[in-house]
Structures are given as structure tokens and as C-alpha cells.
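Colleagues,

For the teaching module next term, I've prepared a clean inverse folding example: a structure given as C-alpha cells, and then the sequence designed for it. I'd like students to try predicting residues themselves before seeing the answer, so please don't circulate the second half yet.
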């Protein structure tokens, strides 16, 4: 059980502030908004984990912030459009685990962040959400092992938000397919008359 002195309370407070963002991140309708909110979230979580002495989580969130800057530029800058960036960030994630090793639990942020790299590289918010589920599960396990109540609650909220976003995506895709089928049926009826 973690001690709750003033410093730890401040760290947990930062985690509580960071907990507000997950619903908005994973229900965002555009990739640009999703990645911008993810950057802010990672800055807060990096600070939170650093203050708690959970170095692997702090380092990984710092790397994630760099990832989001590059991935946000993907649509507007040619240098950021090469898929090599995804590979570079996966290598950085895994390498940083060695530098911040605190036991096998240090693998959880690296695996979670690496899964996120693949998802965030994709253009579709649906794909981002699909990759975010296993990534969030890794971070949830790390939060449990780091003893951060705000991290645990946040990751549970994130999983709920991801599921809500996925449900909305699936519902919208079905509605679009039904509209398309109806339009095709009307077009065929008109052509046969």
C-alpha cells in the first residue's frame, strides 16, 4: 500500500486530473483530436508516474509524447509519413525498458506503448480503438502493480470509453451500409422501370 504524504497526494492529484481525459480521447471522432488529447494525457501520466517513482511508466509516457508529435504531423508533413516512424518508436519503447528496468512489470508499459504505436499510426479512429484495448490492458496491469489508484481507475475508464467508441463506430458503419443498400435497391428499381 503506498504512503500518502503531501508529495504522493500531489502525484495522485495529477493522476486524477489525467483521469478526466480518457473518455474524450477514445470517443473522439477525428484522429487529430484523439492524438492531441493523448499527448496531454501522456504528459500528465508521465509526471504522475515519475512522482511515484515508477520510472518505466514515466519514461514510456515521455516517449509517447514524442510519438504523438510525429504522428500528428503525419497528415501535413512528408517527413512524418514514412512507416519507419512506427518501427522507430517500437524500438525506442523496447530499448527504454532496458534502461528503466524495475523487474518484469517494466515490460507492460513497453508492450502497451508498442501496441499503441501501431494503432496510432493508422488513419482510422476505429483501428486506433481496436489496438487501444490490449494496450490499455497492459497499462492497467502496470497501474495495479505500481499501486496507483488513479491509474487503475483511469485505465478502467479508458477501456469503457474504447468500448463505447467501438460500439458507436460499428453502429455508424452498419447505418452507412444500410443506407448504401437502400440507395442501390432504389437505383435498381429505377433502372428496371
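(Answer key — instructors only)
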Amino acid at each position: 500500500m503506498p504512503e500518502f504524504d503531501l508529495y504522493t497526494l500531489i502525484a495522485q492529484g495529477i493522476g486524477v486530473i489525467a483521469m478526466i481525459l480518457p473518455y474524450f480521447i477514445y470517443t473522439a471522432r477525428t484522429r487529430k483530436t484523439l492524438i492531441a488529447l493523448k499527448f496531454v494525457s501522456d504528459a500528465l501520466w508521465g509526471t504522475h508516474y515519475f512522482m511515484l517513482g515508477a520510472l518505466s511508466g514515466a519514461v514510456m509516457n515521455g516517449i509517447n509524447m514524442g510519438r504523438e508529435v510525429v504522428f500528428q504531423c503525419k497528415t501535413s508533413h512528408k517527413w512524418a509519413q514514412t512507416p519507419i516512424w512506427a518501427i522507430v518508436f517500437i524500438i525506442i519503447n523496447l530499448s527504454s525498458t532496458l534502461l528503466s528496468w524495475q523487474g518484469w512489470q517494466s515490460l507492460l508499459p513497453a508492450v502497451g506503448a508498442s501496441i499503441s504505436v501501431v494503432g496510432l499510426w493508422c488513419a482510422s479512429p476505429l483501428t486506433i480503438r481496436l489496438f487501444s484495448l490490449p494496450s490499455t490492458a497492459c497499462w492497467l496491469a502496470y497501474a495495479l502493480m505500481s499501486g496507483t489508484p488513479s491509474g487503475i481507475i483511469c485505465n478502467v475508464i479508458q477501456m469503457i470509453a474504447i468500448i463505447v467508441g467501438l460500439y458507436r463506430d460499428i453502429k455508424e458503419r452498419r447505418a452507412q451500409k444500410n443506407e448504401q443498400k437502400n440507395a442501390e435497391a432504389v437505383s435498381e428499381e429505377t433502372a428496371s422501370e
